[in-house]
Write a structure and sequence with these properties.
This protein has about 425 residues and is mainly alpha-helical. The chain is about 50% helix and about 5% strand. The strands form two sheets. It has a three-stranded antiparallel beta sheet with strand order 1-2-3. A three-stranded antiparallel beta sheet has the order 4-5-6. A hairpin with a 2-residue loop joins strand 5 and strand 6. Bound molecules: D-malate (MLT). InterPro entries: Citrate_synth-like_lrg_a-sub (IPR016142), Citrate_synth-like_sm_a-sub (IPR016143), Citrate_synthase (IPR002020), Citrate_synthase_AS (IPR019810), Citrate_synthase_bac-typ (IPR024176), Citrate_synthase_sf (IPR036969).
Length: about 425
């Protein structure tokens, strides 16, 4: 019987037999063939490298229509959230399923403020980590150890502990990230300031003077808030899928999120905006000749970074939201950033060239986020850390949703074995 009650099925005919499978429907009309009984019924598995055709769970958190360029969190279009909500409201929405009332938002923000400091022993640990280590490596290590500092909130089967861990993760990640940034950039870490809002406090810990009265640029605060919001979730991307896979073994939420940080660190996932900047440097090294660079891309001598997306076959709706922000930040600069200018020229020329539009290569969120972060003064090695802080609500929401889903089983894919068949062990002596 199909899930939507319409009794729709899909027939599989193969040499040796046939089998009927239920056809399931999502709330947006997406359809999925329920192949749970395939192996037991036919002796066959499916081969799907990268899981591009595999829905591994039902989820109520994020809806993406890649062809139409739609992204919604809990049903709300990303454009509306970007316009009307803050990152904290969206974090609450993604994790709890509904937008907070004013009172709920205040309580949530207060809990995060109170929990922002990290234990002294953890500060000692952070200070002992190699200063020249990549901030993502250090972040993953630190998040993993939260389970040890806070073993009173590491039991995945206890809802109260999960709730406490949720707040601790959201509250402490910016503090840990800022501590790492200050140390790797050679300055003294700054304690969280309970008088400040979440994003403002993060910026003050990153760039402040430590006096408590550091003036923050409102445009930069809004820019970071928006960038975090736009990254809050993206359904089963590599790091979120990793968090679910690790969590499916009943691993605690801290360890699962730490695994997500490591997945995000990969250059193909969270490292993409850093790759955009490296590409822009390459163009600068070519005397800023964007046309010559695009010809090299067409000749497959180099890669166009920040264009195209595994899921979006049209535009990435997140990139539209930050394009205006990029222009505002550029306008703010006394001396226009050369890489920023090159990015805008590259975008304009690639979008006017059928070679790229026919291949559906439109700018994605990574194309703009790196240049904005750079203009705000972030070193390149912090870009992925910012992505991690933004993605944290999504990781937490998916981990929690999975635990409440009765269909959850430990992740255990199959393989198509293509190695040697049985062969005799070489004769001895
Ligand atoms: C993301 O936001 O995680 C990236 O766009 C990658 C993805 O969704 O696969």
């Amino acid at each position: 019987m199909s899930e939507d009650g319409k009794g729709r099925t899909v027939e599989l005919r193969y040499d040796g037999g046939d089998q009927t499978f239920p056809l399931l429907a999502g709330t947006e009309g997406e359809r999925a063939i329920d192949v749970k009984a395939l192996l037991s019924g036919t002796g066959m598995t499916t081969l799907d490298p990268g899981f591009g055709n595999t829905a591994s769970c039902r989820s109520e958190i994020t809806y993406i229509d890649g062809a139409a360029g739609i992204l919604r969190y809990r049903g709300y279009p990303i454009q509306d959230l970007a316009q009307h909500s803050s990152f904290l409201e969206v974090a609450y929405l993604v994790i709890r399923g509904a937008l907070p009332s004013a009172g709920e938002l205040k309580d949530f923000a207060d809990q995060l403020r109170t929990n922002a400091p990290v234990p002294d022993e953890m500060r000692t640990l952070l200070d002992a980590l190699p200063r020249n280590g990549h901030p993502m490596t250090l972040l993953a290590a630190a998040v993993n150890t939260l389970a040890a500092y806070y073993d009173d909130s590491a039991d995945p089967t206890d809802d109260d502990q999960v709730e406490t861990a949720t707040i601790r993760l959201l509250a402490k990640l910016p503090t840990i990230a800022a501590h790492i940034h200050r140390r790797t950039s050679g300055s003294e870490p700054i304690d969280p300031d309970p008088a400040r809002d979440y994003v403002e406090n993060f910026l003050a810990m990153l760039f402040g003077q430590g006096t408590g009265d550091t003036e923050l640029d409102a445009l930069y605060t809004r820019a970071l808030d928006l960038l975090l919001l736009l990254h809050a979730d993206h359904e089963l991307n590599c790091s979120t899928a990793t968090v679910r896979v690790v969590g499916s073994s009943d691993a605690d939420i801290y360890g699962s999120v730490s695994a997500g940080v490591n997945a995000l660190f990969g250059p193909l996932h969270g490292g993409a905006n850093q790759a955009v900047l490296e590409m822009l440097e390459e163009i600068r090294g070519m005397g800023g000749d964007v046309d010559a660079f695009l010809e090299k891309v067409k000749a497959k001598e180099t890669r166009l970074m920040g264009f195209g997306h595994r899921v979006y076959k049209n535009f990435d709706p997140r990139s539209r939201e930050i394009k205006g922000l990029a222009a505002d930040i550029l306008a703010r600069q006394e001396r226009p950033d050369e890489l920023f200018q090159l990015a805008l020229e590259l975008e304009r020329k690639a979008l006017a060239d059928p070679y790229f539009t026919e291949r559906k290569l439109y700018p994605n969120v990574d194309f703009y986020s790196g240049v904005i972060y750079r203009a705000m003064g972030f070193p390149t090695n912090m870009f992925t850390v910012l992505f991690a802080i933004g993605r944290l609500p999504g990781w937490i929401a998916h981990w929690r949703e999975q635990r409440k889903d009765p269909a959850t089983r430990i992740a255990r894919p199959r393989q198509l074995y293509v190695g040697p068949t049985e062969r005799p062990y070489p004769a001895q002596g």
